[in-house]
Amino acid sequence: MATKKRRKFSPAFKAKVGLQALHGLKTVNAIASENKLHPNQVSQWKKELQDRIPQVFEKPGDSSDDRDEVIEQLYGKIGQLTVELEWLQKKTKNLGL
């Protein structure tokens, strides 16, 4: 029984095939036949390309979700430090320092 090795495709090849499918000039089946791929694979690369296209135009570190999360963490840390500072001030006053 012979085992079939998985083929590995470069990101550039996947992008090329995905873009061909996005253009819609040929059917997914035609693109798959030309590149000796299964049509499901072409459809998967097309969908992944559609999902990731907006990321191409994002600036690094400009994700609003990440920024909001960082801001929330910082506000939490400010609150914690404020409570600790007030506690320390109270304790030093009680000890007469």
Low-confidence runs:
none
Distance linking N and C termini: 83 Å
Please tally the β strands and state the result. 0
**Helix count, DSSP H or I runs of 4 or more residues:** 4
Structural class: mainly alpha
Overall shape: elongated
- Oligomeric form of this entry? single chain
Strand content: under 5%
Largest sheet: number of strands, sense, barrel closure = none
Compute the CA-based radius of gyration.
Answer: 27 Å
What does this structure look like?
This protein is mainly alpha-helical. The chain folds into 2 domains: about 10-55; about 60-95. About 70% of the residues lie in helices and about 0% in strands. Helix 1 (about 10-25) crosses helix 3 (about 40-55). It is elongated and about 85 Å long. About 5% of the residues are buried. The mean pLDDT is about 90.
Could you provide a short overview of the structure?
The chain has four helices and no strands.
Per-chain topology:
Layout: H1 11-23, H2 28-34, H3 39-56, H4 64-95
Which terms summarize this structure?
4 helices, 2 domains, 97 residues, mainly alpha
